[in-house]
Amino acid sequence: MIELRHLRTLMALKESGSLAAAAKKRFVTQSALSHQIKELETRINSSLFVRKSKPLTFTHEGARLLHLAEQILPQVLATEYSLKQGLKGDEHNLALGIECHSCFRWLMPVIERFKEQVYDAQIDLSTRHLFDAIHALETGALDLVLTSDPVLGHNIAYQHLFDFEMKLVVSVDNPLAQASHVTPAQLAGVNLITYPVPLARLDIYKHFLEPAGVNPGPQKQCDLTSTLLQRVACNDGVAALPSWSIKEAYDLELATLNLGVDGLKRPLFGAYLQDTSKAHLIKRWLEQVTLQGQQQE
Question: Domains plus CATH for the chain?
Answer without folding.
Answer: 4-89 (1.10.10.10), 93-162+267-296 (3.40.190.10), 164-265 (3.40.190.10)
